[in-house]
TrEMBL record:
It comes from Pedobacter vanadiisoli. GO terms for molecular function: peptide-methionine (S)-S-oxide reductase activity. The keyword Protein biosynthesis does not apply. This is Peptide methionine sulfoxide reductase MsrA. Residues 1-19 form the signal peptide. Its EC number is 1.8.4.11.
């Protein structure tokens, strides 16, 4: 009888571990144009899916054209579904901060406006603490030579962007914008985070 109970407990423990391994979490980052953001995070091990969209504004179900005016208050963001057993939130934050310029307010490269702001939308108190700790450390060590201005805010309603924005780089990699703006970011990612990339 003891053997049967031990076997049952072992099976239950294995099932629980397997279920935990399947559990996913969300991370949401804004770091300029979501075409660039999407292309970066799609390549990371442990990232299950990515959706380009809009968050942080006042208008429900905004369109790309409305967000581009800067009047809705939304940022172009990426909602990432990831497996924390494979990639940690800390790892995602590291990629986030090393893949854009977090010292420019409402601007990334040639893209200017509040919709291109650097922002972390946290989903849990733990994510908030980790993001704040990371940002404080970057500023304390003067990592960029300028102050990090990334906003850290509670997650707000997320609106999925239009279909033509989804999987943009993979569908349009030969377009001039993709080759000139996104490809260098991918090259940098492959150089710095090689061990974290999907095969």
């Amino acid at each position: 009888m003891k053997k049967i109970i031990l076997i049952l407990l072992a099976v239950l423990a294995l099932n629980q571990t397997h279920a935990q391994g399947k559990k996913t979490e969300k991370a949401t980052f804004g770091m300029g144009c979501f075409w660039c953001t999407e292309a970066i995070f799609q390549r990371l091990k442990g990232v299950v899916s990515v959706k380009s969209g809009y968050e942080g504004g006042t208008l429900a179900n905004p369109t790309y054209e409305e967000v581009c005016t800067g009047a809705t208050g939304h940022a172009e963001v990426l909602e990432i579904t990831y497996n924390p057993m494979v990639i940690s939130y800390d790892d995602l934050l590291e990629v986030f901060w090393k893949s854009h310029d977090p010292t420019t307010l409402n601007r990334q490269g040639a893209d200017s406006g509040t919709q291109y702001r650097s922002v972390v939308f946290y989903h849990t108190p733990e994510q908030k603490l980790l993001a704040e700790k990371y940002k404080a450390e970057l500023n304390k060590t003067n990592a960029y030579g300028k102050k990090v201005v990334t906003a850290i805010e509670a997650a707000k309603p997320f609106y999925v962007a239009e279909n033509y924005h989804q999987n943009y780089f993979n569908k349009n990699g030969s377009e001039p914008y993709c080759r000139l703006v996104i490809q260098p970011k991918i090259d940098k990612l492959e150089k710095i985070f090689k061990a974290k990339l999907k095969n």
